[in-house]
């Protein structure tokens, strides 16, 4: 007769691990905070094309860029110097990354925009910038960031909305736009910004956001200094006035210190591609500011285009 075995002894003990939460509170916060930060940076940068076109007539572009970053350094230093000293060993280890990021995002990007603003219209600048999210996505894809069909669809919808908004819905107006040498400079600026955004993914966690910002601002300004000296020697230094101080403070504090910090944080939270899609909202902000500030009329086609852009961004920026 087979002996009876206790069921407790026969059955192996199995410990069931509790199910892991689908999304931690931090990551859930990032899903919302990332797009909001990208939205804030995009809103601030919306004034850049108008400022670039305005200052291009009164200040040599290299001098505009140099003083922009000097102002940004002064604005950021009180908040980031202590952190930079703490993170200095990591900054030294990753000095190559810091220098490349500074060259792309600080030395080249905005300098190229200001050069472009001397010989092309703000409309052309905005139209070329409309392709930035696609180029950002391409650089990010090459760096291993995934591109989904939903994001690609959102990008296409938003891009069509941007182009239609800028051309006011007229194919004839789009085809007859006068492209100039400045547009080539803007294409170069777009490429440097896309490369900078994709490169942010490589920022080590041992370097805080403010430390990274201050280090890149300082390195970029140092690289601009010799070119600035040449510009002053050949073109003469500009004389500050009421027409230039305000715009310079805007691009130095808001468009540099604030917008670059929020953009870098957004890319860290949601990736370069999703942050880039939010960048499509720039012409929507420009149109709204023009309406509120100077009473520029908004047509039905513009409202429809802005709706398409917002829809595209909402689709493309989804997780």
From TrEMBL:
Annotated transmembrane regions: 29-46, 66-85, 97-116, 122-142, 154-176, 182-200, 212-238, 244-263, 275-294, 300-317
Compartmental location: Cell membrane
Superkingdom classification of source: Bacteria
InterPro entries registered for this protein in UniProt: Diverse_Substrate_Transporter, EamA_dom, EmrE-like
Topological relation to the membrane, as annotated: Multi-pass membrane protein
Region (Disordered): 1-22
Main location: membrane
Keyword Transmembrane: yes
Pfam short name (any one): EamA
Entry keywords, A to Z: Cell membrane, Membrane, Transmembrane, Transmembrane helix
Residue ranges annotated for the EamA domain, each copy included: 33-165, 181-315
Family: Belongs to the EamA transporter family.
PANTHER family linked to this entry: INNER MEMBRANE PROTEIN YTFF (PTHR42920:SF11), OS03G0707200 PROTEIN-RELATED (PTHR42920)
Protein name: DMT family transporter
Lineage of the organism: Bacteria, Bacillati, Actinomycetota, Actinomycetes, Kitasatosporales
């Amino acid at each position: 007769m087979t002996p009876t075995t206790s069921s407790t002894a026969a059955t192996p003990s199995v410990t069931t691990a509790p199910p892991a939460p689908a999304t931690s509170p931090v990551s859930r916060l990032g899903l919302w905070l990332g797009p909001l930060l990208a939205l804030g940076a995009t809103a601030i940068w919306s004034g850049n094309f108008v400022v670039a076109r305005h200052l291009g007539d009164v200040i040599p572009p290299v001098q505009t860029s140099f003083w922009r970053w000097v102002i940004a350094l002064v604005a950021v230093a009180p908040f980031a110097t202590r952190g930079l000293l703490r993170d200095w060993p990591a900054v030294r280890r990753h000095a190559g990354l810091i220098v490349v990021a500074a060259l792309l995002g600080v030395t080249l990007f905005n300098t190229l925009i200001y050069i472009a603003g001397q010989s092309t219209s703000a409309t052309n600048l905005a139209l070329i910038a409309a392709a930035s999210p696609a180029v950002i996505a391409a650089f990010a894809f090459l760096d291993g960031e995934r591109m989904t069909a939903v994001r690609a669809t959102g990008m296409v919808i938003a891009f069509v909305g941007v182009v239609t908004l800028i051309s006011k819905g007229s194919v004839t107006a789009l085809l007859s736009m006068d492209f100039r040498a400045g547009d080539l400079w803007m294409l170069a600026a777009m490429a440097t910004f896309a490369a900078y955004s994709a490169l942010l993914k490589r920022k080590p966690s041992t370097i805080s956001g403010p430390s990274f910002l201050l280090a890149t601002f300082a390195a970029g300004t140092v690289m601009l200094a010799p070119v600035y000296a040449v510009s002053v020697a050949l073109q003469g230094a500009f004389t500050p006035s009421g027409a230039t101080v305000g715009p310079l403070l805007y691009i130095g504090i808001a468009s540099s210190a604030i917008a670059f910090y929020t953009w870098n944080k957004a890319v860290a939270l949601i990736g370069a591609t999703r942050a880039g899609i939010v960048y499509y909202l720039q012409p929507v902000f420009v149109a709204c500011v023009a309406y509120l500030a100077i009473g520029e009329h908004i047509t039905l086609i513009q409202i429809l285009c802005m709706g398409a852009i917002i829809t595209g961004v909402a689709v493309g920026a989804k997780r």
